[in-house]
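User: If you would, consider this record:
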Amino acid sequence: MKIVVTGSLGNISRPLIEFLVHQGHQVTVISSDRNKTSRIASMGAKAAIGSIADASFLENTFEGADAVFAMIPLDSTQEDLGVYMRQMAHNYVEAIRASEIKRVVILSGWAADLIEAENIEHIFGELDVSITFLRPAIFYTNFYQSMELIRGKGLMGKLLALRYYGISSLWNGKTGLLMGNYGGEDRVVFVAPEDIAIVAAEELIQLPDQRSIRYVGSEEMTCNEAAKIIGNAIGKPWLKWVLLSDKKMMQGFKMAKMPAKLASILTNMQAAIHSGKALENFHKNGAKMGHVKLSRFAAEFAQVYHRKS
């Protein structure tokens, strides 16, 4: 199959490219970074340099392809995240229609149907093609966004690096605390990007007659259990995950000078996780867990953590 993968060489896209190339598919990778052309080629794929903000570029890149893995990266500079997300989704829809692609896998989020402002699935639903919406849980790799804060060297401004689908949290390395408006004994699901990539690869080569939704996770536990695993790996076994109120979370985002609408969306998304609704949806839809445990990721995290100390 001829498959287009968006997301450049990101945490999900990189292993997805490897899986697809290994299976013998012809893979084109969209990246906005021309410097990654040679790395993409070394993986056995073809680079298409451009932006998903350019619908004409997408249409030209999709031409002749059988399937597309589509994702929309967070742009924390956007004043209105909802407007940005919807525009990027419409760009995809326009290009998919024009290129007559028949199979699309969309990266969504496990709280997508709970937060109206971030739900772009209905836009893709306008397409008359075979679609799977992937709803991954909280990414392991989002812990990296807080590495400087966990050392106690960072500032609130580090919150601008928060990832759209993941842990929107504050870390305090001096007191050994992990904070957010979900946490403590809240039960959540974490997921390894590799496990997401495996599911994405499976879905891309299928052609089901109807739209489908797949929730993706790797391991379920409480937030404090996750904090303990990370803490033990880096030599801070006292690490705790403290639950903040929505009000305090919004205050933190405001101090970080995050756009107000983005802060509201992230706060509401975390509130949905704290309420248990995201976890309920995950289990209600018969999600199957992947194979990468948080303990394995924590060992990798610790290596990076100590290397940069």
The longest helix spans residues 81-99. Confidence is low (pLDDT under 50) at residues 153-176. The domain at 2-136+193-216 is CATH 3.40.50.720 (Rossmann fold). The chain has twelve helices and 14 strands.
